[in-house]
Amino acid sequence: MPGFELWGKEEKQHVNDVLETGILMRYGFDAPRKGIWKSKELEKAITETFGCQYAQLTSSGTAALTTAMAALGIGAGDEVIMPAFTFVASFEAVLSVGAIPVLVDVDETLTLHPEAVKKAITPKTTCIMPVHMCGSMANLDALQAICNEHNLLLLEDACQSIGATYKGKHLGTIGNAGTFSFDFVKTITCAEGGAVLTNNKDVYIKCDGFTDHGHDHIGTDRGAELHPFLGYNFRISELHAAVGLAQIKKLATFLSIQRKNHAALKNILQQVPEISFREIPDPNGDSCTFLSWFLPSENITKSFVEEMKTQGILAGNFYWYANNWHYIKQWQHLKEVKSLYNLNAEQKIALQTLQTQDFSVSDAIMSRCISTAIGLLWTDEQIQDKGNKMVDAVKKALASNK
Ligand SMILES: *Cc1c(COP(=O)(O)O)cnc(C)c1O
């Protein structure tokens, strides 16, 4: 799954280009940088690779989400509808702009349940934020239709689904804006980094300024640049962008390996009739970073996890239901509003209501779900061996829950 598995001489070459000049910052220093502009080059490569008009690099995927929300004008009093299965960064970003995260159920796509979204819409709703978890996608046609009907923004958190497509378009390029993360375990990495993708020039210009203290980036004298609005420092460094530039050129290779290994593993698991698979709205567009699958009950799934643990082979198989990063069930800090600083009153009330909100629809799905991360370095023999061991553990779990 992660691009770091195929780290190599290309990354070192791009980093060395920057180390030669010593200009580690993405803006300014035009003469001493000797034509080396890794961040600008990576932004261009992102627009070309993913087919969008504009890309703004950021220091992380979380910063990209915050930037996208700011540029879309999402702030205090606005409700953002997002799934209960995601990464903590998704709600962190909503809170950071003063807005209200409204968490709703997922369906067997493992992302937003369109019916749950409809039910959650209020006069304060301004944005729907699907999170394309584990390499695959939300039902974007259904969500776009809801956005159109209620005049809402669509912001795609595509941090985990770089290279995946929906009906021929890359995830992250379909909504009003989309975000990628290039953190260390994502499909392509910069070590740390992220990007906002958009086809809207106004949104892009706002992202460009917001990530650099509101600078308008007009002219050649940084000190004389104007600040048309407030911003922060969410800049990426040239060293990070250099790594990303090498990685983005390897993306096609990563995806083809993932697709091959994913198919081989699925082929083995498929032989067990009790195993079913995640619903994929556009199967051709799956980036195949994970194979996500279901067992018939929570107890059987727990027995499978225990069996894999006992054998010491659980690594790479994620049971999100019990995981502290990805599912509402374990987010005590969120539900108990453990903020270091005072959140606004509406945010506090919304978070407290999460304590009693019914997530039984999501529970029934997540408690039976395992996501198996697809390795880039697996040999055919290793896949066969891995698959056989998983099948044996599933059979044991099924037998012990008869
Ligand atoms: C990784 C991730 C992010 C945030 O990325 P960072 O670069 O780690 O800040 C946001 N959303 C999702 C779904 C992610 O997986």
What are the SSEs and their pairings?
Blueprint: H1 9-21, H2 38-50, E1 54-58, H3 61-71, E2 79-83, H4 88-96, E3 100-104, H5 114-120, E4 125-128, H6 140-150, E5 153-157, E6 165-166, E7 169-170, E8 177-181, E9 194-198, H7 201-210, H8 238-248, H9 251-269, E10 276-277, E11 290-294, H10 298-310, E12 317-318, H11 332-335, H12 345-353, H13 360-366, E13 369-373, H14 380-400
Parallel strand pairs: 2-3, 2-4, 4-5, 5-8
Antiparallel strand pairs: 1-9, 6-7, 8-9, 10-11, 11-13, 12-13
Helix pairs in contact: 1-8, 2-8, 3-4, 3-7, 9-14, 10-14
The structure holds pyridoxal-5'-phosphate.
Notable features of this structure?
402 residues; alpha/beta; Aspartate Aminotransferase, domain 2; Aspartate Aminotransferase, domain 1; 2 domains; four-stranded antiparallel beta sheet; 13 strands; 39% helix; globular; binds pyridoxal-5'-phosphate
Written account of the structure:
The two termini are 35 Å apart. This protein has 14 helices and 13 strands. The chain folds into 2 domains: 249 residues, Type I PLP-dependent aspartate aminotransferase-like (Major domain) (Aspartate Aminotransferase, domain 2, 3-Layer(aba) Sandwich), CATH 3.40.640.10; 149 residues, Aspartate Aminotransferase, domain 1. Helix 1 runs antiparallel to helix 8, helix 9 crosses helix 14 and helix 10 crosses helix 14. It is globular, with a radius of gyration of 22 Å. It has a 7-stranded mixed beta sheet with strand order 1-9-8-5-4-2-3, with helices on both faces. Strands 10-11-13-12 form a 4-stranded antiparallel beta sheet. A two-stranded antiparallel ribbon has the order 6-7. Strand 2, helix 4 and strand 3 form a beta-alpha-beta unit. The model has no long low-confidence stretch (mean pLDDT 97). 39% of the residues lie in helices and 13% in strands. The chain is an alpha/beta fold and 402 residues long. The structure holds pyridoxal-5'-phosphate (PLP). Pyridoxal-5'-phosphate binds next to helix 3 and helix 4.
